[in-house]
Structure formats: structure tokens, C-alpha cells
Write a structure and sequence with these properties.
Elements: E1 15-18, H1 31-46, H2 55-71, H3 80-88, E2 93-94, E3 100-101, E4 117-123, E5 129-131, E6 137-138
Antiparallel strand pairs: 1-4, 2-3, 4-5, 4-6
């Protein structure tokens, strides 16, 4: 089952962004991320929601997969302090449907984010999206400053 590509000619050419590889643009994704998209699609079909293959479902699905992977690194009892420690030790972690991140506080100085990478997508006339950035772009707070 592939994500349904909703034809919307008015949206054709509109550029959007996401920090995840999208099911409706799977053809643009690297092979490893295409496999993860298939896992996502299979999971959504298993719970009876094959028609909700979009970013509103991808994000929580990805978050759950990532949290499970991180929690699996905890030796012993899973407690609040153990979870916080595991999160802080997350380095070069390949996010499910996402980029590689390190949770050392350097992605956004002074913030708790682990990543700062986004993909730019262009809505296609036939439906779906295509990545138009050269892979992930890394942003800094300066990139988001108001124009002068």
C-alpha cells in the first residue's frame, strides 16, 4: 500500500518543508528511508488506518519508533532519570523517517532540540510531493531571523 496522492492542481508547485521523509513522496527518499516508509504504511494498515498516510500520522508514528529505540538502550529499570539520561546520550541517532541527530544541545544552542535539519518538498501536479532540496538542509537560529 502506498500513500494516496491527492491531486490538487492549485497546490502544484507550492514548496513545503518537513524534517521527515514523507510517504506521499517515497520515490524521493533514500532506500533506507523507503524501507521505513513501508514499515509505517504496514503499521497504519494493521491498525485499520491505511488512508491516513500523511504527516499528521507520520510524526507520532516516528516519535513512538524513536522513543522505543532510545528506551531499548536503557539497562535496568526505566525511570524518569534513566530516560532523561538515555536521551542526553543520544548521539548520531538515525531517526525513523528522519535525519541523524545528536542530543547534545548544540543543534539549537540554549534549546532542547536534537536536530535542525529539514527537507523542502514541492507539491506535484499529479499529487504527492518531491524533494527539491539537496537532501537535508541544516538550519541555525540565524536562518530564522527576520529580514532586515
Amino acid at each position: 500500500m502506498r500513500a494516496r496522492k491527492v491531486r490538487n492542481e492549485a497546490a502544484a508547485g507550492v514548496v513545503t518543508f518537513s524534517d521527515m521523509w514523507r510517504a506521499d513522496g517515497a520515490e524521493s527518499a533514500p532506500a533506507a528511508k523507503q524501507k521505513e516508509i513501508k514499515v509505517f504504511e504496514k503499521g497504519m494498515k494493521a491498525v485499520g488506518k491505511p488512508d491516513t498516510l500523511n504527516v499528521f500520522a507520520e510524526a507520532p508514528f516516528s516519535d513512538a519508533a524513536n522513543l522505543a529505540r532510545i528506551l531499548s538502550t536503557i539497562k535496568g529499570e526505566i525511570t524518569g532519570p534513566a530516560v532523561l539520561d538515555a536521551l542526553k546520550k543520544t548521539k548520531n541517532f538515525d531517526l525513523f523517517l528522519g535525519p541523524v541527530v545528536t542530543c547534545d544541545g548544540k543543534a539549537w544552542p540554549g534549546q532542547s532540540n536534537c536536530g535542525n535539519s529539514i527537507l523542502f518538498y514541492e507539491n506535484q501536479p499529479e499529487g504527492g510531493v518531491k524533494v527539491v532540496s539537496d537532501g537535508y538542509l541544516r538550519l541555525t537560529p540565524a536562518d530564522l531571523a527576520p529580514a532586515k
